[in-house]
């Protein structure tokens, strides 16, 4: 079965008619449907499937005679709201296609596929929630207390999704069973388009974090409240967002985004009493990110005061810059001598695992270079080339 046809099947799950693209939050019915799709494909290939206490689905190819830590690949099936069809699913479908190629190779090591839940953090606000739980990057107590936009706690959602919150948390034994992890992912930029190659080896992941800003003012009637003396948190937030944009513009390589803003109560004829907005901030140097956060906190305080409001800034997640293991990159480049190396500004579960075991990534060309949008794209031929490259790399690592 081709990667493209598997992507076609996945594309029938979680389409978002309102926003376009796909909306696939973690640990819910859509996620369950996607997991069942994956489990069906894995079982049909003779893989042993299990779902761990953190909700990660593992599929193992462990024929008799294979020994030692497994070579694992995989990615995620959840999406951002209105996301594209490749961010995550391309890595999972390519992993299944790679297994089809590897099964006849009589490799000495077991091969595994991992499907990580809530990689986007779209529902509970923390990116890579599954792999962070697995590695201990987030304490289960903190994770279980996270709430989604409806006020549902992760503990309740996980329990409804068939998990036992009491068993969640770091699993060093599971990590020890992995000799190397290689994630294939659609490129979320135009690097490969400009270089004219279908596949690249990843060199690094930009450090990135998320902060929630809550601004409180005075709610009131839009018609009976004169402009003088208003304490409008939405106006304060607007000034803050522009100031954050200007700060990032003035800092080479920085990226700052506010894509989510929620006024309370959210009425057209109501001056909001509060507004929450989230900042996604990224920079290759973790020290610069920290300095930018300090500047953001200061400007938020100054603007809030000027607008007669109060404000808080709370860190929700923070991921340091990742430089992938040089030895592993060398092995991948030996397997794929024509493939260039590219860094990425996008976070991945591979970035979380990189601090715990030998980890690498492959990127596959995206002709539009656009991601987190229905315009994300990967041509069928490149998708197949990616799966062949992944099989090549996994086979080499299994024989190493
Ligand atoms: O936000 C990211 O960089 C990734 O897509 N989760
Ligand atoms: Mn993404
Ligand atoms: Mn992704
Ligand atoms: Mn009225």
From TrEMBL:
Source taxon at top rank: Bacteria
Matches recorded under Pfam families: Peptidase_M20
Key words, A-Z: Hydrolase
Annotated Gene3D superfamilies: 3.30.70.360, Zn peptidases
Homology family: Belongs to the peptidase M20 family.
NCBIfam families: hydantase (TIGR01879), PRK09290.1-4 (NF006770)
Protein name according to UniProt: Allantoate amidohydrolase
């Amino acid at each position: 079965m081709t990667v493209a046809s598997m992507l076609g099947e996945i594309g029938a799950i979680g389409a978002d008619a309102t926003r376009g693209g796909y909306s696939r939050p973690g640990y819910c019915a859509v996620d369950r449907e996607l997991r069942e799709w994956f489990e069906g494909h894995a079982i049909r290939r003779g893989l042993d499937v299990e779902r761990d206490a953190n909700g990660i689905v593992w599929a193992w190819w462990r024929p008799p005679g294979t020994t030692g830590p497994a070579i694992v690949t995989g990615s995620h099936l959840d999406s951002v709201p209105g996301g594209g069809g490749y961010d995550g699913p391309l890595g999972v479908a390519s992993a299944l296609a790679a297994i089809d190629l590897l099964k006849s190779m009589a490799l000495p090591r077991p091969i595994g596929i991992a499907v990580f839940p809530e990689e986007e953090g779209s529902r509970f606000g923390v990116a890579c929630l599954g792999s962070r739980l697995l590695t201990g990057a987030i304490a289960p107590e903190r994770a279980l207390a996270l709430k989604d936009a409806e006020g549902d706690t992760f503990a309740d959602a996980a329990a409804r999704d068939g998990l036992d919150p009491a068993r969640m948390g770091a699993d060093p034994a599971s990590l020890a069973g992995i000799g190397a992890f290689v994630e294939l992912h659609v490129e979320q930029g135009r690097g490969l388009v400009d270089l004219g190659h279908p596949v690249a080896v990843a060199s690094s992941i930009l450090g990135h974090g998320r902060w929630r800003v809550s601004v409180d003012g005075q709610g009131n009637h839009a018609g009976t409240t004169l402009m003088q003396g208003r304490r409008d948190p939405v106006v304060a937030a607007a000034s803050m967002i522009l100031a954050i944009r200007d700060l990032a513009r003035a800092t080479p390589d920085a990226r700052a985004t506010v894509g989510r803003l929620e006024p309370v109560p959210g009425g057209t004829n109501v001056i909001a009493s509060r507004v929450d907005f989230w900042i996604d901030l990224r920079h290759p140097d973790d020290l610069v990110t920290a300095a930018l956060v300090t500047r953001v906190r200061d400007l938020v305080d100054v603007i809030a005061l000027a607008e007669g409001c109060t404000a808080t800034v709370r860190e929700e997640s923070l991921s340091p810059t990742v430089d992938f293991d040089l030895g592993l990159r060398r092995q991948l480049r030996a397997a794929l001598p024509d493939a260039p190396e590219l860094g990425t500004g996008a976070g991945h579960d591979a970035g979380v695992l990189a601090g715990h075991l030998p980890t690498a990534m492959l990127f596959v060309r995206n002709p539009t270079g656009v991601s987190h949008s229905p315009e994300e794209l990967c041509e069928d031929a490149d998708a197949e080339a990616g799966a062949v490259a992944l099989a090549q790399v996994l086979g080499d690592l299994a024989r190493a």
